[in-house]
Amino acid sequence: MNEPSGLTIRPATEADLPAIVAMLADDPLGATRESPDDLAPYARALKRLTEDPHQHVVVAVRGERVVGTLQLTFVPGLSRRGSTRSIIEGVRIHADERGSGLGTRFIEWAVDRSREENCQLVQLTSDVSRTDAHRFYERLGFTPSHVGFKLQL
Amino acid sequence: MNEPSGLTIRPATEADLPAIVAMLADDPLGATRESPDDLAPYARALKRLTEDPHQHVVVAVRGERVVGTLQLTFVPGLSRRGSTRSIIEGVRIHADERGSGLGTRFIEWAVDRSREENCQLVQLTSDVSRTDAHRFYERLGFTPSHVGFKLQL
Residue limits of the N-acetyltransferase domain (chains A, B) (predicted)? Predict the structure, then answer.
């Protein structure tokens, strides 16, 4: 998808992994859980993601530079009359691009893709500490209607 | 999976749909969004779910009777060093079985299956109004660390 601003949103490839993992790690929470010096586990995961038609790992590219990434997952279900929902995970925007409107365009892209797949619901969870992100999602029309529970295994 | 209590947890089939949809609708939130008199959309959704190796819609059966349902989804990802997480959705326990320990066994089953799939994280969201459910998940070790955002399309 080509944007008038010179922004392209396209599927991530293995060549994008150094930039993607650098963004995952350049984050107060991600810093402790990523390994930018060892890309092998990310390459294995990207291969599995690329083979799965319900998974869409994308990058936002400006010029030649990867400036954002997110993962959009389509999840069919029985509830709500057999509706499909989408889940947005792993949203990262390059530090240089924060405040540029890229985050808004990126989430709008994910919402548009979800509509195209006939999803009735888009959902995401955000760590309670990310209060700026919460205001951002509320501005985009998301409702903080749920508590997100996690269990580390 | 056979439990000593006479409980079996197994994949849902089309024959289970009347019981499953009745449980989805027998709920303060579900009552307004389900259609137990029209099973066709549920049958279509179950077919898609059954064909997807990352989706596991299961029922808990006691004797011949379906007494619970949940959906377990395995979601590979790039973050956390390419880790896979599982998502639990659509948990319903028959009204007659509430307080029987079935909910606990059911979530423990989902956590065990997630471990078998090498998931590093199990997650779920629960409507902010379901405060009893929140205490239940916290007792099982889940942390309410996230805000769950939804956007209806």
Answer: 7-153
